[in-house]
Amino acid sequence: MWTFSKNGIHAQDTHAEHQIEWELATKALITKRYVMLQLGGQLYHTFAASMFDDPTLWHNFRAAIIRNFIGCQGCKYDLHGTTSDTCPECGKPIDNVA
Ligand SMILES: [Zn+2]
pTM for the full model? Predict the structure, then answer.
């Protein structure tokens, strides 16, 4: 089960528990199937779409990463604090990643 909050990500499954604070993450890379978060200058923590049972959760997770670390893929607009699924500046879907 994955939960996303203002503070970070919490994941619990039968194998492990992950707690990742947004403030510890320094950089994010994103593709259609993977999200990589760099934590405190250490190795990237990789999340794969296959780790998520529910496609909606995966979508929400990627959208949270894009809002917090990457910004609009179209116009580079800063998406911090936005809740819409599209960029308020150029209208491009936030989850639209090449
Ligand atoms: Zn935009």
Answer: 0.75
